[in-house]
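User: Teach me something about this protein's shape.
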Amino acid sequence: MKKYIFIVLIVIVLGGLFFFFRKYSAAPTPAPSGNSATAPAPAPVQPNSVNPPIKPVKAPLKSEGRLVVGITDATVPLDSIQGIQMVINEVKIRNSSTQKWISLSSTARVYNLLALDRAADLAVFSDNNVPRGIYDQVRISIAKVSVLKSDTATAAMLPASTMTINGKIIVINGKDAVVSFDFLSDKSLHITQKGSYLFIPVVRVQIKSQSSVQIMNDVIHSAGGVTDIDSTVGMNEKGVVKTNFILDKNTNLDVIDNIIQIVPTVK
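Assistant: First, the predicted structure itself:
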């Protein structure tokens, strides 16, 4: 008797499981509503997304104007190079009257130069209110440069870690001024006889006054204004910055005793 009861119980359980799975497997998939459509693809990573966001600047005082500094790269494609990463740790400007330097930011920020080129973005470095006046020099400090090739990052040696550039930054009460550093990677990157990378900066510097600036997602958007400076500067192998100078890509370079030097061509 117990045997038959046990068999009946098994049949009931199996039957229940059959109808349960049949019911839910046949249930139609709900149609997506207006708010539950397929999740959008993630937003593309910004070229400088590893950096902390720049805090919005407060309204300038009556004796101040706004000065925004940006970094970009308008270069031609570099064969087999995946990226060039630059770390900038400070930008300063010098007041032409007092000869005193003002640090705009000493917070290191990382930029993928080739990504900036592809996106055609001017990535923000700093956003400040500074005393009105004329500033005649800007100094940019570069902590390091790395070249990414075949998924491997290799350090590139710099002739000097700072570039001091002559220019004219005009800061007017309540107005926006913009300084942009456009690193030309294709003209800056060199390879030694031994295959080491050198980054000898060539930079297009643009300075605008009386502009209208907005910063969205750490990208600078400026409209109008007066272009006070638009020039190219380059560093030589000794770290000296010159106007309208580009070290010839065919120059034979090597590192001797940790110093970049021009050497005779090996025949």
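Now, about its shape. Confidence is low (pLDDT under 50) at residues 1-14, 17-47. The radius of gyration is 29 Å. If you'd like, I can walk through any region in more detail.
User: That's plenty for now, thanks!
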